[in-house]
Each structure stands twice: as structure tokens, then as C-alpha cells.
Amino acid sequence: MKKLSLAVILIVLPSLAQAWPWSMDMANNVSIKPQESVDPDHPGMQPFPSRSVPVKGTTVFVKDADAARAMNNPIAADEKSVAMGGRLFTVYCTPCHGTSGTGDGPVGEKLIMKPFNLTNSNDLHSWNPKEYPDGYIFGMMTLGGAVMPSYANDLSPTERWHVVNYVRKVLQKAPPMAAATQAK
Ligand code: HEC
After folding, report:
1. Which residue, among 85, 159, 174, 80, has the nearest Cα to 121 in the 3D structure?
2. How far is Cα 89 from Cα 163, in angstroms, rounded to an integer?
3. The CATH number of the domain where 117 resides is what?
4. Which of 58, 125, 142, 166 maximizes the CB count within 10 A of its CB?
């Protein structure tokens, strides 16, 4: 019986510790909280500074992969867009897909599911724009895949289309290693 009550105390103790006043000391210290007023005549929350704008947060503009697939690429694949896409691809995609786009990035090598080959040498499909339109690549970045994370937080929709243009123009037209020089 003694043993049992000891066990019960040991189980309950940690949850009690959460409720003890000092468990909130770090949170409720003397520092000024965000938006807290320091004007004793006007206590409470301070109004937002003038000209501050609300942040809308992340917007996933597409419902699902099918909706993404049906989207038209609104950004012309000119030199500027492809160059911007190349810079973004280097930052966000090469860790897994590699500079070559074939899926030989250092992080990709460690994944159980290998990153898919994004070049024309892709043995999954030929990247026929009719079969795999720009919207498909856009959708992968927006929604992510089974293993691939979503990049909707990191890349704005316009940036995602720049990356699409880079993948199309450079990775899928030029021989794999050309991508590395273009991305720099
Ligand atoms: C953390 C590793 C990782 C990163 C970073 C990553 N991917 Fe992927 N990607 C994958 C994996 C794994 C797959 C395989 C499909 C899946 O996950 O469902 C994939 C698949 C894809 C596909 C589908 C290819 C096909 O043949 O159907 C596209 C397109 C793609 N990625 C584009 C990108 C782009 C563009 C970026 C950069 C914004 C990126 N990926 C970043 C891991 C990654």
C-alpha cells in the first residue's frame, strides 16, 4: 500500500509542479510584454503604431494538387525570372534535388524516399508540358509531397513561379551539370 501511494504521488507530482506559482515566474517577469503600455495613465494594451499593417500570414492559394496542375504560369520565363528562380532553387531545392536537379543533394541522399529527378532524364516521366504542366511543379512546392515539405511559407507564389521557370528552362532543357553554373 505504501508503495502504491508513493507511486501515485510520483505520478501526480510533475503535474502539480506545473501549477505551482513559481512555474510561471519566467513567463510573468518584470519585462514589458509585446504591445504592453508603459504609460501609467493608459494601462493595458497599446494601440498599434501608426502605419503598421496586418500580416496576413501564409496563404495557400491552391486547394489541392489537381487545382495547382490546372493553373497557368502567370510569370513569363524571361532571363530575369529564370535567374531569380535559379537563385531560389539553389537555396531551397538543391539540398535534396542537387544542383543538377537529378536528386543527388546531400540531404536527399539521407532520405528514405529519394528526391525525384527533375531533369529530362527523369525515368518517371518525360515532363511533357501537357502531361506535367508548370502548375504541377508549382503544386509540389505549394503543397509538398509525401516526403517533400511544402515551400508555401518560404516562397511567395511569384517566387514559386520563378523556380518553375528555372526548372523548365534550365534543368529540363540543358544537360544536368549546366544547372550548377546557371544557379550561381
Ligand atoms: C527535403 C528534401 C526536399 C527538398 C528541399 C525539395 N524536395 Fe522536391 N521532392 C523531394 C522528394 C522526397 C520528392 C519525391 C516525392 C514526394 O515526396 O512525394 C520530391 C519531388 C518533387 C517533385 C515531383 C517530381 C516528379 O517527378 O513528379 C517536384 C516537381 C519537386 N520535388 C520540386 C521541388 C522544388 C522546386 C524544390 C525547391 C523549392 C524542392 N522540390 C525541394 C524532396 C525535396
Report:
1. 174
2. 6
3. 1.10.760.10
4. 166
Number of independent structural domains in the chain: 1
Q: Is 138 inside a domain boundary?
A: yes
C-alpha dist (Å) from residue 83 to 76, 142, 143: 12, 20, 24
pLDDT band at 168 (very low <50, low <70, confident <90, very high): very high
Is the distance from CB of 75 to CB of 165 less than 8 angstroms? yes
Residue 27 CA to residue 29 CA, distance in Å, equals: 6
Question: In this structure, is the dihedral angle defined by the CA atoms of residues 83, 87, 92 and 94, taken in order, positive or negative?
Answer: positive
Residue identifier of the C-alpha nearest atom 25 of ligand 1: 116
Range of the domain at 71: 65-183
Indicate whether 8 belongs to any domain.
Answer: no
* CB-ligand 1 contact for 163 (6 Å cutoff): yes
- State in Å: Cα 46 to ligand 1 middle: 44
13 close to ligand 1 (CB < 6 Angstrom): no
**pLDDT, mean of residues 22-30:** 76
- Which residues face 36 on adjacent strands? 45
Handedness of CA 95, 154, 115, 107 (dihedral sign): positive
| Residue 76, Ramachandran bin (φ over 0: left; ψ between -120 and 50: alpha; else beta) | beta
